[in-house]
Amino acid sequence: MSDVQILGVGMHPWGKWGRNFAEYAVVAARAALADAGLSLGDVQFLAAGNTMRNGYPGYVAGSTIAQALGWSGIPVSSSYAACASGAVALDAARARIQAGKADVALVVGADTAPKGFFGPLPGDRPEDPDWLRFRLLGATNPTYFGLYARRRMERFGATAKDFAAVKVKNSRHGASNPNARYRKVFTEDEIAESPVVAEPLRLVDICATSDGAAAVVLTSAEFAARQSDRRPVTVAAVSTVTPTYPNTDLDLPDIATDSGVGAPPHARPFRDAIAHVAYEEAGLGPEDLSCAEVYDLSTALELDWYENIGLCGPGEAEALLHSGATTLGGRVPVNPSGGLACFGEAIPAQALAQVCEIVTQLRGDAGERQVEDATVGLAINQGLFGHGSCVIVTR
Amino acid sequence: MKPRVPVVDGLFTEDAGPPALLGGRCPRCGSVFFPKQWSFCRNPHCDGGPLDDTPLSTRGRLWSWTDNRYAPPPPYPAGDPFEPYGVAAVELDAEQMIVLGQLARGTDIGRLQLGQEMELVVEPLFEDDDAVHTVWKWRAGSVTG
User: Fold this and answer.
1) In-domain check, residue B23
2) Which structural domain range is residue B88 located in?
3) Which one of A15, A29, A293, B139 is at 20 to 30 Å from A87 when CA atoms are compared?
4) Is B1 within the bounds of a domain?
5) ipTM above 0.90, yes or no
6) Which overall architecture, per CATH, does domain A4-116+209-225 show?
7) In whole angstroms, what is the distance from residue A390 CA to residue B23 CA?
8) Residue A371, SS3?
9) Considering only CA atoms, which of A31, A338, A16, A147 is closest in space to residue B114?
């Protein structure tokens, strides 16, 4: 199967702008097209990540964005996979190109987020696990992040200082990123003064909810080869796997895991599998990575991801962090963009924002946050309700 | 006195002795599901079903814990003023699964230890004009190991 390449990327800065999500989408899409040297008329397919909190237009984000850009008659797709939505949209566009049904596809994710905790959709719905966890337990997203963080402390001896060191690192990375919402450099002392939200995590350990948009222009390798003044990079893998039964890891939004009684738990836990499938497709391994964007919903979760993507063994993430390997200038900088710590999550845009950062790094366009001689980058995240997402990009 | 009613029906029972969560068990492979959610077995290696109603173990081992210091959005019935609460993840040996629950009122989370025994209790979650609305919670038992 021929390669699919990324010819352009674009973003709308993250923030709390309070405008319609389609406005951000159009800014990101036009930026990505300009970056690719293309116009809307060149686009043969549009794939979008949906948003659950912007009414009907959010459930049909593909057509909402197509209309906002100006109807051009092309087919669209609208995908929802929570935080993995962007990668699922990207996968739909890639498949379209691989099947020979399009040469140029535009992938867009955009969100307008409410203030404070994400809540479930309204209504009285006891059969919806996302409703149940709020109704019965008051289990917010940070509740789960707190459970994971405490588990890490108890199993591996991680400390609040380790978590703070992740925040310090990411805040330094993102300080020069014009698309980041938070560009303040944090010190450990400032973090220690932040109020506890879900013990052991403080407010600044947990990512905010943001508005923002990201867009990627995908093309066939043949099409990219004809754009001789551009710098295409290659989509080496897209993994959008789901868990294998029984999923005995505690996952959002469930209030209980699967039972291991009727079948043995899979040897490779879900988050490990998300990366494994991408490595297999790319024919690459963790030792090949120049940099990675991982889903730091909390500081502690970034440490879990180091192990899930194979940068180190279980319980070794704190040592890897303190070695400087994952800091800019180190062996494999993690979250050179500043990560969610500096962005906050704009759900359907986030997986694409990760890809935008990897592409920017591979092209050498990242300025002060540039990873030296980046050739292979991995972006990974997980959406609630069992969505994995991992994209590997190479040049 | 106001009647005690579960916040959501059918998830636990207080009818036969100590309170227990109510799940579904596959008659063929023994897999347990909580909440029961669907009538059939979700084990892809099994064609068993329909599920039998089954009480879950009432004790387990503490897998992790946290607390919540800010009021969650609806439908959580946060009072005014908001009262923070703990949340525990408890591993049930027989079922080989983890079940979440709030920590029983008055639990000192600073004294919890990984792996310690936890016991299921039923407590009020909120009260309105008509009833006291109850939910299961986890109470710290004896410290093991």
Assistant:
1) no
2) 58-145
3) A15
4) no
5) yes
6) 3-Layer(aba) Sandwich (3.40)
7) 34
8) coil
9) A147
Q: How confident is the model at residue A1 (pLDDT cuts 50, 70, 90)?
A: low
Distance CA A77, CA A72 (A): 14
Domain boundaries, chain A: 4-116+209-225
User: What total of structural domains would you count in chain B?
Assistant: 1
pLDDT in tens, A180-226: 999 999 999 999 999 999 999 999 999 999 999 999 999 999 999 99
CA distances from residue B134 to A119, A120, B33, B71, B128 in whole angstroms, order as listed: 21, 21, 21, 19, 12
Q: Where are the beta strands (DSSP E) in chain B?
A: 4-6, 12-13, 20-25, 32-33, 52-55, 59-68, 85-92, 97-103, 117-127, 132-140
Instruction: Report chain A residues whose CB lies below 8 A from the CB of B107.
Output: none
Assess if residue B65 is contained within a domain.
Answer: yes
- Is the pLDDT at A348 greater than 70? The verdict is yes
Per residue in A145-189, pLDDT (tens digit) is 999 999 999 999 999 999 999 999 999 999 999 999 999 999 999
Which residue out of A261, A297, A301 would a mutagenesis test of the B interface target, given it has the greatest number of B Cβ atoms within 10 Å? A261
Would you call A259 and B85 a contact, using CB atoms and an 8 Å cutoff? Answer: no
Would you call A201 exposed, middle or buried from its count of C-beta atoms within 10 A (0-12, 13-18, 19+)?
buried
CB A259 within 8 A of CB B35: no
- Inter-chain touch B85–A138, beta carbons under 8 Å: yes
The two counts, helices (H) then strands (E), for chain B are 0, 10
Residue B118 inside a domain? The answer is yes
Tally C-beta pairs within 8 A across A and B: 153
The answer to whether residues B90 and A222 touch, using CB atoms and an 8 Å cutoff, is no
Q: For position B142, what pLDDT does the model report?
A: 61
Q: Closest partner residue to A135 among B8, B41, B96, by Cβ?
A: B8
If you average pLDDT over residues A93-100, what whole number do you get?
A: 98
Contacts (Cβ under 8 Å, ≥6 apart) of A208:
A181, A182, A344, A345
* Spatial distance between the Cα atoms of A77 and B76, rounded to a whole number of angstroms: 35
Of the candidates A264, A214, A244, which has an alpha carbon nearest to the alpha carbon of residue A87? A214
Indicate the residue of B29, B65, B102 with minimum beta-carbon distance to A150: B65
Question: DSSP class of residue A334?
Answer: B
